[in-house]
Design a protein that fits this description.
This protein is α/β, with parallel strands linked by helices. It contains 7 helices and 14 strands. Helix 6 links the parallel strand 10 and strand 11.
């Protein structure tokens, strides 16, 4: 596995017990990123630097803002990205927009309160259970920064034959997903009706929301789904596969897409 880019990790001293030896260790970098639309700050997220334009685009797509591009701001402010989103309504900041990536639905309360429009995923994609079972291992093999620090989440975008098309790592699981969706947007792949998303951790509501907005029919994870994640996946027609490890796959919704 290649070494991770230097901006993803930093060194720090650590005391290891028992034994009392003090050594240099590597940790994941975490810094704030301010997102602006029309010059107006709309969100601050704590992220691992790198692919910031993708992160901003994926974030805005997930919130239904219909962005067309992202760039450095005119004032060149550090840790800031300007998103071009024609027709952006600033009033939604006071109605439904959230300003912390710690939770994708903080303050929204329930399924009906989510302001994002995500049409039901109608993709007829079908995958073999054996292929699905290999995806977390393939994702793990591409997580160079995790191998170095043990402190980063990852999202991978896979083709139907199991080829890894894109992988992004970040201290925030939502950020890793946003970066992948931003890349897919830039590559003209949306909606993702012929792709699979795989995440390194558990399946939360907001990850299912992002997959649904992107039109992805299958979402795979090493960990467990939450009850709300299952409810949303069933409602939006997303096949949810959890506890995918050691050759096993738990299919929680739309099982017809997974052929045993």
């Amino acid at each position: 596995m290649a070494a991770p880019p230097p901006h993803l990790t930093a060194t720090t001293s650590v005391l290891r017990l028992p034994g009392g030896s003090e050594v240099e260790d590597r940790v994941a970098v975490e810094e704030p990123l301010e997102l602006r639309v029309g010059g107006r700050p709309v969100a601050v997220t704590m992220r691992t630097p790198g692919h910031d334009e993708e992160l901003a685009l994926g974030f805005c797509l997930s919130e239904g803002l219909a962005p067309v591009g992202a760039r450095l701001p005119d004032d060149l402010a550090a840790n800031t990205i300007e998103v071009d989103a024609p027709g952006f309504d600033p009033d939604r900041l006071t109605r439904s927009f959230y300003t912390s990536s710690s939770c994708g639905v903080c303050g929204k309360g329930a399924l009906e309160a989510v302001a994002v429009e995500a049409p039901r995923v109608e993709s007829e994609l079908r995958l073999g259970a054996g292929l699905v079972a290999t995806l977390p291992e393939r994702l793990r093999a591409a997580q160079a920064a995790f191998a170095s620090t043990g402190g980063l989440h990852a999202t991978g975008l896979f083709t139907t034959d199991g080829e890894l098309a894109c992988v992004r790592e970040d201290v925030g699981r939502h950020n890793a997903m946003d970066k992948v969706l931003g890349r897919a947007f830039l590559d003209g792949l949306l909606p993702l009706g012929a792709h699979v998303l795989c995440v390194s951790g558990r399946l939360s509501f907001e990850l299912v929301q992002k997959a649904a907005v992107a039109g992805c029919p299958v979402l795979v994870a090493v960990g467990a789904p939450s009850s709300l994640a299952v409810s949303l996946a069933a409602d939006r027609g997303v096949t949810l596969c959890g506890f995918v490890r050691d050759g096993r796959v738990n299919v929680y919704t739309e099982p017809w897409r997974i052929e045993g």
